[in-house]
């Protein structure tokens, strides 16, 4: 009879350990899903910012080429 009680206690501890592990796995799965969603969001933001950066770079180049201040000077022709 004492062996049955010991077996039941061991079985109960084993079941509790399994439940704890299952809960930890489920929590980690949710964390992974959240992180994956965040990575997707950051990728989208990164693409958007890259595109905006290209537009701004082109705009700056156009402004610089239109301004005489930023025009390249030909030093050889000035020396002659």
TrEMBL record:
Alphabetical list of Pfam families matching this protein: DUF2205
UniProt name for this protein: Short coiled-coil protein A
Subcellular compartments: Cytoplasm, Cytosol; Golgi apparatus membrane; Golgi apparatus, trans-Golgi network
Family, per entry: Belongs to the SCOC family.
Parts forming coiled coils: 18-52
Origin superkingdom: Eukaryota
Any one GO CC term of the record: trans-Golgi network
GTP-binding keyword on record: no
Role: Positive regulator of amino acid starvation-induced autophagy.
InterPro entries, A to Z: SCOC
Gene: scoca
Organism: Betta splendens
Protein topology in the membrane: Peripheral membrane protein
Keywords on record: Coiled coil, Cytoplasm, Golgi apparatus, Membrane
PANTHER family membership: GEO08385P1, SHORT COILED COIL PROTEIN
């Amino acid at each position: 009879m004492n062996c049955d009680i010991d077996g039941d206690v061991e079985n109960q501890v084993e079941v509790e350990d399994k439940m704890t592990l299952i809960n930890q796995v489920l929590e980690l799965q949710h964390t992974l899903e959240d992180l994956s969603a965040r990575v997707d969001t950051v990728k989208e933001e990164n693409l958007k910012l890259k595109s905006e950066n290209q537009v701004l770079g082109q705009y700056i180049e156009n402004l610089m080429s239109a301004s005489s201040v930023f025009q390249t000077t030909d030093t050889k022709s000035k020396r002659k």
